[in-house]
Design a protein that fits this description.
The structure holds two protein chains of two kinds.
Chain A (H helix, E strand, L loop, with lengths): L2 E3 L17 E3 L4 E5 L6 H9 L10 E2 L2 E2 L7 E4 L11 H7 L12 H12 L14 H13 L5 E5 L7 H18 L2 E6 L2 H7 L2 E6 L4 E7 L14 H26 L1
Parallel strand pairs in A: 3-8, 3-9, 6-7, 7-8
Antiparallel strand pairs in A: 1-2, 4-5, 9-10
Chain B lengths: L1 H9 L19 H8 L3 H28 L11 H13 L12 H32 L1 H14 L8 H8 L3 H25 L3 H9 L4 H38 L5 H10 L3 H29 L1 H9 L3
Helix pairs in contact in B: 1-10, 4-12, 5-6, 5-8, 5-10, 5-11, 7-8, 8-10, 10-11, 10-12, 11-12
Classes of the chains: A alpha/beta, B mainly alpha.
Chain lengths: ~260, ~300
């Protein structure tokens, strides 16, 4: 499978949010997109998800152009998308009980598997409001994985969590990803997160958003938390931080001018 | 009466603040907070009913005294005991204290209840439908919303003469007026409910492959339900206002008719008994709506106090 991202620009009141983005994502790769705020990284994800349409260029998934949202591309949102009136298990089953996913197997079996994998079995009957932020995001990830998408798109999924919970969730996400091996694309402004999770990290420029650099992250998998304080990781982080800071300052100057 | 009804329907569009917490002990303010600070269980179990009873009892005593000492003439303002005796006879027909009205209460109450629920039913059904259409479709919003916004500012009581001309004397104008009054709060609050649904939820449902029908039934309706129920509750309140108005003017049965007829015959005791009957039935109807709401929206209480939206 390949995402053939081509030239497109999305306009918000005649502001070019993205320009000439070219990106090729191989099957089962974990790609992270990092950049200063306002660089259009969320816009890019929205286009991939099909919530928005490109003003130029085209996106294809598995050779077919993207024409709206669909269950082949699962999206994990920053603001947890759980239905507050459903329990955890009903939320996880939601996708599978839709007509479009009838053929994907029995909701009961998938729900059991997901509850076990996410460690939420004891909380299956709770409502989202009765869960902590981390548990809520786990449940949201489980509900997306339940429909078995080929691609997982994540828009700052841990942005609303505290630092400790966030690092635990990153390990959780990696664990799930190692098992399910989906093509994953995660947007973040957290440079550590971007490197820790990725096979390749895309650094974006701002105003308009362009791909500044694609950095291969050659750290061994499975990743461990301790790697963050080891030399190769630190070198990568310093390098990426340098570029992102440069772009952020450039962006701020342009706005001032 | 007319002014009261007008003001109520006029302000029906403003969604009231969220329901009060029922999570005793979990929320540290209001009644539960005070309860928690009560010194002992026995002290609290004695004090609590007293707190509830003190004001109504004082009111009744004051009223009784005023009537007893002749501060207000007894035939103008009958004492609570007089009203109670008349009310008893109204219902049972046992003592003839209510004379020509003796034993008629049940028929009048049934007539009023039937009108309220008939009007309420069509009013909220159309109101919710209109609210959904306006909330979901930009085109329907342009088609329907301006008309609704203008019409809902006409007090429903102002429709009385026209509906009498149109429907004549009978049940029809009453049911029409009540339905009209119930329509607006249901429509406006449903629209509001549909619009305030978290966009992330509809996006997520679409992403998972929900079609339009599934989106409506499984995301939009449950998501809008808290607001819809707020509208339905307001509708029920207005229905009881309007049933009295309609029965005074348009029909020869029901508690409103009883009230007005007793007024014509200087039976102020019967009049007050009829007033209190309307209040009591209105209160019970409201409890019914609240009961249904709390049953449907158990999740919403958790939501309101967890700080998540």
């Amino acid at each position: 499978m390949s995402h053939l991202g081509k030239t497109f620009a999305s306009r918000h009141g005649n502001v070019t949010a993205l320009a000439d983005i070219n990106l090729d994502i191989a099957d089962q790769q974990f790609i992270t997109i990092v950049g200063a705020s306002g660089c259009g990284k969320s816009t890019l994800l929205n286009l991939l998800a099909g919530f928005d349409t490109a003003t130029s260029g085209e996106i294809t998934v598995d050779g077919a152009p993207v024409a709206g949202p669909g269950p082949d591309r699962g999206v994990v949102f920053q603001q947890t998308a759980l239905f507050p009136w459903l329990s955890v298990e009903e939320n996880i089953a939601f996708g599978l009980t839709l007509r479009a996913n009838r053929h994907k197997g029995s909701p009961a079996i998938v729900v059991e598997r997901m509850l076990e994998r996410t460690g939420l079995a004891a909380f299956r009957l709770r409502r989202p409001a009765e869960l902590s932020g981390g548990m809520r995001q786990r449940a949201a990830i489980a509900s997306v994985l339940a429909i078995n998408p080929s691609t997982l798109l994540m828009d700052e999924p841990f942005g609303a969590l505290d630092a400790l919970t966030r690092s635990i969730m990153q390990d959780f996400l990696l664990e799930v990803w190692e098992e399910e091996r989906k093509t994953a694309l995660l947007v973040t402004h957290d440079i550590d997160e971007a490197i820790y999770l990725a096979d390749r990290t895309v650094v974006m420029t701002a105003h308009p958003g362009r791909v500044r650099e694609i950095i291969a992250v050659d750290l061994p998998r499975p990743r461990r938390y301790e790697m963050r304080s080891e030399k190769p990781f630190i070198a990568l982080r310093d390098y990426v931080t340098g570029i992102v800071r440069e772009e952020a300052i450039k962006g701020a100057m342009e706005i001032a001018a | 009466m007319g002014n009261g009804a007008g003001t109520r329907s006029g302000s029906a569009g403003v969604p009231p603040s969220p329901p009060l917490p029922r999570l005793r002990g979990r929320v540290g303010w209001g009644r539960s907070g005070r309860d928690a600070r009560a010194p002992s269980t026995t002290g609290r179990s004695l004090a609590l009913p007293a707190q509830y009873a003190v004001f109504p009892v004082a009111l009744l005593v004051a009223w009784q005294v005023c009537a007893q000492i002749g501060f207000i003439r007894r035939n103008v303002l009958p004492a609570p005991t007089d009203v109670a005796l008349v009310w008893y006879d109204l219902i049972t027909g046992a003592t003839d204290a209510a004379a020509r009205y003796s034993g008629t209460w049940l028929d009048h109450a049934a007539a009023s209840i039937w009108r309220v629920f008939a009007g309420f039913a069509w009013g909220i059904a159309l109101g919710i439908l209109a609210g959904l259409l306006i909330g979901l479709s930009r085109i329907m919003e342009r088609v329907l919303d301006p008309t609704i916004q203008v019409l809902r500012n006409i007090p429903v009581t102002a429709w009385v003469p026209l509906s009498l001309v149109f429907f004549g004397i009978g049940n029809a104008p009453a049911v029409f007026l009540i339905g009209l009054g119930a329509f607006f709060p249901a429509a406006v609050n449903t629209t509001h409910g549909v619009r305030q649904i978290n966009v992330t939820l509809t996006k997520a449902a679409r992403m998972m492959g929900a079609n339009e029908r599934e989106l409506l039934i499984r995301v939009i309706l449950p998501g809008a339900l808290p607001s819809i129920m707020t509208g339905v509750r307001l509708s029920m309140g207005i229905a009881w206002v309007l049933v009295v108005v309609a029965e005074i003017l348009a029909v020869r049965s029901g508690l409103g008719y009883l009230l007005n007829d007793a007024y014509q015959f200087y039976r102020n005791d019967v009049m007050i008994a009829a007033m209190l009957s309307v209040g009591m039935l209105g209160f019970l109807s409201d409890r019914l709506v609240v009961f249904v709401r709390d049953h449907l929206l158990e999740w919403n209480r958790l939501e309101t106090f967890s700080g998540q939206n």
